[in-house]
Each structure stands twice: as structure tokens, then as C-alpha cells.
Amino acid sequence: MWIMLLDEARSKEKAYHILYRSKEQVGPTPDPEIELSRGLSRLGYAPTSDTIAFTRKALDLSMLDGGKSINSEPVNKALGSVLPKIYTDMLVKNFLDVANYQYYTCFPAQLTAQCSEWWEGRAAGRQLNPELTCLLLQVCASSTQFLEDDLRNKLETELGDKAQTLTERFHTAALELSASIPRGEVQDAIIMVQQLFLAAVWYKYEAKMIEAWHALGSAIRAAQESGMHKDSNSDALSEFDQEMRRRLWCIIWNADWQMSGVLSRPVHTDQKDMRLGLPSRLEGNADPEVPTPIASVAYQAQIGVIISPLFRELGHNNSVDLTLKIEKEVEKWMDTFPPVLRDYRPNKDWDEKYPYVPFMRCQLNVVAYSFLLGPLKAYLIGASDLEIKGTRQESDLRAKGVDACLDLLDAAERFYKLIYPACVKYFFILFFIFDGATVLCSALAHDLDRTLPKRDRVVLALRNSMDLLEGVSHLSQTAIISAAVLKKLIIVLPLTAHERMILGWEDRRKRIKTGSNTSTESGTLYATSNSPARTGSSSGLTSLPEWDKCASTQQSFDRDPALDSALEFNPARMPIMLPEPPEFNMSFSDAEVPSTNSGPEHLHEQAQMQPHPLGADVPAAESSVSTEVPLEHLQNLWDWGYLNMELP
């Protein structure tokens, strides 16, 4: 058998040399051993297969399949998109200071050294590693998505291009170069997987979730090609490289099982066909009680091994037993968090010395609350286990669902305030604000007997979520669409007058009685200059979003002390004035799943038929965040079916 394999490999190499000569390609004479090794790879065996391993060992063949076979033309083309070193260094530093902590894809000291070597090689005219060139471009692309205002203004002013144009240029150049690298002939598997994963993350930050899912699949296949999924094929590597391979596999596996749950898509990986080695400490902090930046990845992988199969089962079995099992596992996992990462009374002594710690604390707890909420959603939206309908157990699970959702939104708001405004494209945080708020909308809609626990807090949470999404709609397409859809849902909720007041709706009858026509000059309200939900000049004067301008002719109203307390009333932060909703008949069914194609036309028509005193805008007709954005815009990244809501 071995003789036949070798004969076949040599015959393929002979054919390759004939083709090589016929195209009159010039270059050094190929090393026969490397060419034979490449021929074995072309037979299709995985690099980790016993056949390849035995043959290479028996014939003492090189493990290098590709050598320097990559044509320099794709690299030269990609170099046209690399900025001068001074700007590239700025972007690499910004990546390591900000964007990298979200997944910790790159080890900072290693990336810094790699970039230094890359620039030295370019200056010396040496052939550049194509994978590293891709990584440098993807790092710049990711970094440009997370720019503080000062750095953004500097780059845009001096380079003459918008940040969005730059990030797209870097990303596209990296994709084109990456596509030119023959699979199976990769010089550095770690760098290859890093740059492919960053490509997937880039799509995610741009809210292009279908592209992100497919790009993640490419990163996973590259990792599997090099044996990362089984922690194999690495005996000849240094301990550092072995650790980096384990880290990378944990990162992309976490992304795979979590994204598959969000998108209701199949996982790319098979948990039964992999060996998950949890990351260990490479970083040398002097304080052992402070977790390393990779700790969040390790914790998520730890719980993922346990609950990812349970969540897949939840798709066709929402039994009470499964719900309670997931809850128990997640709570047990949260109890293992060290004091610096806990959500309740965390130890913040190290926050200033290690800026990544508060980021990791917020990130990990948002993930944890989302895991708790997942199986409880059914009990909030009228789709719970039929066997416990109307029982005390259903009420208890419903109350737990409300608490989990409110905890998720509270944690998400803290995270939002921490990362605003540079990281507003961080899809993770906007998604969970939107997801939690829409679940609460469905819970209110199904609460026909008004027994939902903590209704006032639920309504206030909706107001805060709307405020946060609206506040960054000028910075993120995801926020624009999310705010528009959330507004559409809120407008049709059957709320009491008290709840409308909490939400910011004015009592129109009281307005008519007072007859006041006090207006806010130039459509502005006072707001604190550092408020993340309002942006404006340093004077603190903030322009009203268009959808709030129906309140620019607002009237004074008697303040309810209890409401003031609930809202932490501050004259500098006036409530958002949503248009009073028209009266709608909504139907909610436990059996029917609504169509995602329910558009806003019917809403728009009825809104136009309502009287609107004092010249207030027609609901949903004039808006900077138009509610005419159809729900289909989000259906590729979010499952509308579970809301169990039928909008008009």
C-alpha cells in the first residue's frame, strides 16, 4: 500500500513539473523532498492523518508543505491598502488597547513583535508572509471600527477618508489576499486562523451576520486543518505556540456555539470530535488574584461544554426539567467567578491598574444573564410548557424570567456606559439590549390580566433601552434598525396611563386642560455633556432626536413624587416624549408564530387617522429613526418567532 501511495505521489509531482515548465515560470529549482511532501498533501489526507505521519517519518520528509510558493503579486496588491507605518502603528495600538479585549484573539507582545518584523522585512525588500500581511490588515480593519473621537478625527483629517471607508478597504484587501493562499500550504496556521477569525468578527460588528457565520466557518476549517480542534499536530511547536493554539480553538468554538444559538443555525463544530484544552496563564501579572484577559474566554468555554448541548435540546423541548437544569448549571458556574468578576458587589480594587477587568466583568455577566434568560423566555411570552399552564410553578418561572431579563438589561446598560462611544459597534452589547427589551415587550403584550411581576420596572427598562439605542443611532446601523423596531413594538403595547407616564408619554387630556404652549427653543433640551444617551456640544445643549420632536411643544405637568423617585428625576434629563399610541387591537396566540413580514403600513395608516392636538407629529410618520424599517432587516440575525407577537 505504501509503495502505491508513493508512486501516486511521485506521478502527481511529475505532472506538476510538466505543468510548471509549460507555463515557463521562473524561480529556484524546487526541493525534491518538499515537492514530494506537497504531493502527499494533494492526495487529500488531513495533515494529522496516520498515513501522512508514517510516510513523512519513514522518508524523513519535511513538514513544510508550501515553503515560499505564494506568488508575490497578491501580496503586492494588498500592500497598496496598508497605511504608512505611523498610522498603522496607531491602529495596531488602538486594537490592542480596545478591540482585542473583546475576544483576545492576539497576544499583545507577540503581535507587536510580528508587526515590527513585518515592517523590517518590507524595508529590506524581503518576501512578506502573506498570512501576517492579512492579519495586519484585519487588525487595522477591526481597530478602525473602534476609534475614540480624537483618533478618528486625526485619521480622517490627515488621510482624507472616512473611518468606514478605511475599515472596508482594509477588510477587503485582507479577504482578497487570504483567498489567494492555497489551503493546505499555509506557512503559519496560528496567524491564518487569527486573521480569518478577525474577518468573521468584522462582519459581526457591521451587523452582517450571515457573512459572519460563513466567515467563522472558514476560520474553523483552517483550525481543523492544522489539528487545533484535537490539540494535535503540535509536538514540534513551542509551549507558547501550543498555548496559542488552545486559546484560538476556545475562542472560535465559543463563537460557534453561541452564534449558532443566536442565529438558529447549525454549529460548524462537533463537540464529540474535539478536545477542548482550556487556556492557561501566559501573561505575567504580578497579582495572582487578577484574572488574565483570556479568562472570559476560558469561563465561557467551561460552561459551554455543559450547556451548549442543553440549549440545542431546548429547541425542541422546553420542559420545566430542562429549564431548571440549565438554570442550576449556570448559577453554579456564576458562583465560581472570582470577586473581581462578580456582578454583585464586585471587588473593584484592580479596575484602574488593569483596565480590561471592568470590561471582562461586564462582558462575562451579560453572557451569564443571557444564559439564564434563554430557557425562561417561553414563560414570558405565553409559550410555556402546557403541563404547568396556570400553576404556581409557571408563575414562579415567569417571575424568574422577569428578574433575569431585568438583570440582563441592567448589566448591558453598565457595559454600554463603559464602552461608549468608541466601542458602540460592539454588536454584542446592542444585541442584548434589543433582545432583552423585545422579550419584555412580548411579556407585557401577553400580560392580559396584568399580573406580570415588577411591571413598573419593566416599563422603565423599556424606556432606558429605547433611550440607549436611540442615543447611538447616528453611530451604528444596528442601533438604527433596533431602535426603529423597538419603537414600533412599544407604541402598540396596552399600557396604563401611569405606565405611559413612566415611558415618557404625556397625558394629552391634561395638556389640553392647561392650554400651555411652552416650547423648548430650537428643539433642544438640556442634558449632561457626558451622557451616553445624548450627544451634542460641550456646552451640554443637546439636539432632540427627530422622533422626540413631537415633545418640543411639551407642556408642564404635575410631577408625581413616586414617579420622580422611580425615574431619578433630574431637570437636566427630561423624559422622552413618545407619541401617544393609537388604539390598536392586538391578537396574541399561544399556538401561532407570527410572520416576520408584518410591515408597518397598517400602523402608519391608523396613526394618520388619529387626532393629534397642538400640532404634534403623527406617530411613526416623521422620525430620524423611521419605523418604516421592515422587520426583515433583522430576521437574518434574530429569531422573531419566539416573541409570539402579532403586530398590526
Automatic annotation (TrEMBL):
Keywords: Nucleus. The keyword Nucleus applies. GO terms for cellular component: nucleus. GO terms for biological process: DNA-templated transcription. Signal peptide: none annotated. GO terms for molecular function: DNA binding; zinc ion binding. Residues 514-542, 590-614 are annotated as: Disordered. Pfam families: Fungal_trans (PF04082). Residues 212-285 form the Xylanolytic transcriptional activator regulatory domain. It comes from the Eukaryota. It is found in: Nucleus. Its main location: nucleus. This is Xylanolytic transcriptional activator regulatory domain-containing protein. The lineage of its organism: Eukaryota, Fungi, Dikarya, Ascomycota, Pezizomycotina.
